[in-house]
Amino acid sequence: MFEVKFADIGEGIHEGVLYKLEKKVGDLIEEGDTLFLVETDKVTAEIPSPISGKIHQVHFSEGDTIMVGQTIVSIETNEKVEPVKHEIVKEKESTSVVGDLEISSEVIPSSEEIIRPEEQSFKKVLATPVARKLAKDLKVDINSIEGSGPAGRVMKTDILSYSKSLEPIIESTNNATKEVLIHAETHVEKMSMMRKTIAEKMVQSKFTIPHTAMMDEVLVDQLVAFKNDIKDIAEENQVHITYLAFVIKAVAVALKKHPIINSSLNWEDKTIIYHDTINMGIAVDTKDGLTVPVIKHVEQMGVLEIAKAIEVVAQKAREKKLSIEDLQNGTFTITNYGALGSSFGVPIINYPEVAILGIGKISKKPVVKEDCLDIGYLLPLSMSFDHRIVDGGDAGRFMNTLKTLLEEPKLLLLS
């Protein structure tokens, strides 16, 4: 009998929802066929069968919450499969065995990729099973905690100390919530996995990063005209050209000139990780919540290529077809609240990045041109940045470069 477990698919995912069962008890299955779909807080993943055989038992129903390591399907097979041994790490003086995994077979083996220096800030935190279980029970983001154990491993005592430091905030919030529940007619709706993750990430970012913001407006008359000029060329290439494509290209050029904005901070080591590539995250509003797919290596793309890439990732996000790869290793993020008719906002940094750019809607407004009052197209920009490593001067110089490129978009053709 072969047990198909919900294996660790990376990105700190520990649980999911059994979204759809593709096979039922008694069905024959070939190696590589899709067994079931798992909806996580980031993606909906297809889990293939690692062997051929017949479905003996399905241990969960559609809609059930499943945890990494749990057996989802049992398969009768004549194939011999070598078990994968898992190292069991326990905290000293602990009698709990929660989180320990016995020898078993896995659907997806552990990754053996080498972590490049520019990706070190994204790796999974080291922690004992006891600490992970306690963090989950206390609803604490374990990635925000500095471990005191060997090699920086997060221990149970670290979780308890961190949780205690949040008690005044939690107590105040809970009291306010209870007061609202008592005095208002309400109905209760359980948070989705995506919404829970969004909430946790926003709290992590605001508690970890000292945010500050910078706002400005850019006269984009030439950009409006230039976009209209290349509209026919874009249509010939079956590309829907948008202002966002120009903004992404301009940001990529500006980031090459101001690399501190395209970096991450390793607070534990007190080091700054400069990213040699530019992977642009785009905040996409979907019916299930906010998601941020990443377009890789935008510094190597032209405006039309970027426009096509935007279409692809936005469509995948709305259809819940994003892969883990589509969400990994972003270095800078843009959020476009202008698409919803808003002008200015103060976006929250996509941790562990150090800055995020918000763009508003382009509007016609009175402007002064050569000492005369005229009508011009203005694009609002607002950037939040991590004041631990990005100074106001750094942010100002970056914004000035960006403004110049958007005011004179033909400069992008030379970059």
Average predicted local confidence, pLDDT: 81
User: Tell me, what is the CATH class of the largest domain?
Assistant: Alpha Beta
Main sheet makeup = 7 strands, mixed
Distance between the termini: 59 Å
How do the SSEs run, as a string of H and E?
A: EEEEEEEEHHHEHHHEEEEEEHHEEEEH
> Based on the structure given, which CATH architecture of the largest domain is correct?
2-Layer Sandwich
What name goes with the CATH superfamily of the largest domain? Answer: Chloramphenicol acetyltransferase-like domain
Question: Topology, please?
Answer:
Blueprint: E1 2-5, E2 15-21, E3 28-29, E4 34-39, E5 44-48, E6 53-58, E7 65-67, E8 71-76, H1 129-138, H2 156-183, H3 193-208, E9 211-219, H4 221-229, H5 231-236, H6 243-257, E10 263-266, E11 271-274, E12 280-282, E13 284-286, E14 289-291, E15 294-295, H7 303-318, H8 324-327, E16 332-336, E17 355-359, E18 363-369, E19 372-386, H9 392-407
Parallel strand pairs: 12-16, 16-17
Antiparallel strand pairs: 1-8, 2-4, 2-7, 3-6, 4-5, 6-8, 9-19, 10-11, 12-15, 13-14, 17-19, 18-19
Helix pairs in contact: 1-2, 6-7, 6-9
